[in-house]
C-alpha cells in the first residue's frame, strides 16, 4: 500500500511540475527583467560561470543580437537568460519554470542574474 501511495504522489508531482521546452517557457513570460550598462558578452561571461557551479547542465550560446544561457534540456528547461544588445548596454530577461526544486540551483540562477548587473 505504501508503494502505491508513493507512486501516486510522485506521478501527481511530476504532472503538476510539467515539462517545458525553451519556447513554452518564454511564452509564459519572464520571471525577472532588467537592463545593464554592460555589453551582452561581458554580462554573459559574468553570469555563466555562476550558473555552471549550481547547474552543471547549463549552456551558453551566442544569438543574433546577444547571448542565451539555458539550464536543462530541450524537453525539460529549468531556466533561460536572454541577453540582448541595446544602445546603452543590454536588456536582460530571465525565465524560470515553476517546479519543485529542493536544491540551491534554483535560487542561485536568479541571484547570479541580478548580481552581475
Key features of this structure:
alpha+beta; 117 residues; 5-stranded antiparallel sheet; 5 strands; 41% helix
Can you put this structure into words, describing what you see?
The chain is α+β, with helices and mostly antiparallel strands and 117 residues long. It has one domain (19-115). Helices cover 41% and strands 30% of the residues. The chain contains four helices and five strands. The protein is globular, with a radius of gyration of 16 Å. The model is unreliable at 6-17 (pLDDT under 50).
What is this structure, in a nutshell?
The protein is 41% helix and 30% strand. With 117 residues, it is an alpha+beta fold. It has one domain.
- The low-pLDDT segments are 6-17
> In percent terms, what proportion of residues is strand?
25-35%
Largest sheet: 5 strands, antiparallel
Give the domain tally.
1
What gap, in angstroms, lies between the N and C termini?
A: 52 Å
Strand order of the largest sheet: 1-5-4-3-2
